[in-house]
């Protein structure tokens, strides 16, 4: 519920008139702050990505300026989003050689985060302390010994002013919402497919601009911990051609939740395994160990519900301005498939927890359920594994250990083998059962 509301309001976005891709014109548009420059005239597409080397924040009355030093100018575009108030800067792929902000809010900027958003595209998401309009957003060439810079000037406004500024963008978004995903005609779970090895989709959570949970003790980020694990698991499953393995991401890049499900459906996946790492969300401050989640409309407990809310916020964290959430389909056949898929998912979850507990620590309640967006394919058995808690120093030691990864990925691969042996294996003759 919370998530849906959040996605709806995120739609209210707009490209501000004051923020064109200023430097894009090779005619050399001139701004008060410096000469706007052609960004890709030098064949930047083939060059190494520009580097963001420093960030500066200054406040002058109602005006807040955020500046990023660059190694060369890049294409950029800025727009604002509501609820919470944010400004998004999309730019050519850049490498960020800056530390995340320390968290002290100044002027209109509460905090900001950054990372790879899509192939060839980076994003900066700036959380605002209140409604603001973008007065100026551009990159300028270096001058007087100063490096090329990206300037963002924000001016305080009120909620009405902000809403007015959003209108155009909101209208164009409503038009785009027409091409959302529709559920295909496929009506049975993907466990009994025709020839070829079964397809397994591994889904390392978060990525790029969305770091996921961050270990307070070491600063390790969930997105990297789960990617490392997913790669080991991929290699194990792909060995010997038993399975075809598809990763929703195999590098540090953001992938929207709906896209992860779409990748699985397009690959005709027969099993979907999402990999995450938790942080303490409930009262149990000593929480440790693996939890295996399946989809449920009603969460098995309050902690699971809070966790699903956190995980489902990934798109909002990355500043997505378009809901990709497929609409609920009230079709009785799809409903039957969904019910059957949930039984397969629950079976796999049990097998998985059974194998993993042989080699690693499990959570006190290792089998739980909640409304995770990425588990919503109605015809693909899907589980979400929280490998441990980044808030536990000992769990982080495990998560960062190559030996632990190897052993634990082995146990997951065993569970996968059992799942497919039970589904696709030859029928067991009564005599053979003894
Ligand atoms: Zn996560």
* CATH fold-type name of the largest domain: Aminopeptidase
- Estimate the global geometry from the Cα principal axes: elongated
| Number of E-state strands | 18
Derived from helix and strand composition plus strand pairing, the structural class reads alpha/beta
- The total of helices stands at 9
Radius of gyration, in Å, reads 24 Å
pLDDT < 50 stretches: 1-45, 168-193, 322-327, 426-434
Question: In the CATH hierarchy, what is the superfamily of the largest domain?
Answer: Zn-dependent exopeptidases
CATH arch. level architecture of the largest domain: 3-Layer(aba) Sandwich
Major pleated sheet? 6 strands, mixed
The average pLDDT score comes to: 79
Elements, N to C (H/E): HEEEEEEEEEEEEHEHEHEEHHHEEHH
β-sheet strand percentage:
25-35%
CATH class (first level) name of the largest domain:
Alpha Beta
Distance between the termini: 50 Å
What percent of residues adopt helix (DSSP H or I)? 25-40%
**Strand sequence of the main sheet, in spatial order?**
14-13-15-18-16-17
Q: What is the total number of structural domains? A: 2
* Distinct ligands, ions and cofactors found in the model: zinc ion
What does this 3D model show about the protein?
By secondary structure, the chain is an alpha/beta fold. It has two domains: 156 residues, Immunoglobulin-like; 237 residues, Aminopeptidase, CATH 3.40.630. It has nine helices and 18 strands. α3 crosses α9 and α7 crosses α9. The longest helix is centred in the last third of the chain and has 25 residues. The chain is elongated. The N and C termini lie far apart (50 Å). The structure holds zinc ion (ZN). The site of zinc ion has 6 residues, from loops. Zinc ion binds next to loops.
């Amino acid at each position: 519920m919370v998530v849906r509301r959040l996605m709806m309001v995120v739609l209210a976005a707009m490209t501000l008139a004051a923020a064109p891709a200023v430097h894009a014109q090779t005619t050399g548009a001139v701004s008060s702050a410096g000469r706007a420059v052609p960004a890709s005239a030098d064949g930047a597409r083939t060059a190494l990505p520009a580097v963001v080397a420093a960030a500066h924040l200054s406040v002058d009355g109602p005006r807040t300026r955020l500046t990023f030093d660059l190694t060369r100018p890049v294409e950029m575009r800025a727009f604002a989003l509501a609820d919470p108030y944010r400004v998004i800067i999309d730019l050519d792929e850049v490498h960020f050689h800056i530390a995340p902000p320390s968290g002290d809010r100044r002027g209109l900027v509460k905090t900001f985060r950054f990372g790879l958003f899509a192939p060839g595209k980076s994003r900066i998401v700036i959380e605002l302390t209140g409604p603001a309009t973008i007065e100026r957003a551009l990159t300028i060439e270096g001058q007087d010994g100063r490096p090329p810079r990206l300037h963002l000037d924000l001016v305080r406004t009120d909620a009405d002013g902000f809403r007015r500024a959003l209108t155009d963008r909101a209208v164009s978004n409503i038009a785009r919402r027409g091409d959302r995903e529709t559920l295909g005609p496929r009506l049975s779970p993907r466990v009994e497919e025709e020839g070829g090895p079964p397809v397994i989709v591994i889904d390392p959570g978060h990525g790029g601009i969305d770091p996921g949970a961050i270990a307070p003790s070491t600063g390790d980020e969930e997105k990297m911990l789960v990617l490392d694990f997913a790669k080991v698991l991929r290699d194990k499953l792909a060995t010997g051609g038993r399975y075809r393995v598809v990763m929703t991401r195999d590098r540090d890049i953001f992938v929207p939740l709906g896209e992860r499900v779409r990748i699985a459906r397009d690959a005709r996946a027969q099993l979907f395994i999402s990999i995450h790492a938790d942080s303490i969300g409930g009262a149990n401050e000593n929480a440790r160990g693996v939890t295996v989640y399946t989809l449920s409309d009603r969460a098995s407990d309050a902690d699971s519900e809070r966790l699903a809310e956190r995980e489902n916020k990934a798109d909002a964290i990355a500043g997505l301005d378009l809901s990709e959430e497929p609409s609920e389909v009230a079709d009785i056949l799809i409903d039957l498939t969904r019910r059957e898929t949930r039984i397969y998912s629950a079976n796999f979850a049990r097998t998985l927890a059974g194998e993993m507990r042989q080699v690693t620590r499990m959570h006190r309640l290792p089998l739980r359920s909640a409304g995770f967006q990425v588990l919503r394919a109605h015809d693909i058995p899907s589980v979400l594994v929280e490998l441990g808690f980044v808030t536990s120093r000992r769990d982080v030691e495990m998560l960062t250990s190559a030996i632990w990864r190897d052993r634990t990925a082995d146990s997951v691969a065993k569970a996968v083998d059992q799942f497919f042996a039970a589904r696709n294996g030859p029928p067991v003759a009564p005599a053979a059962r003894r």
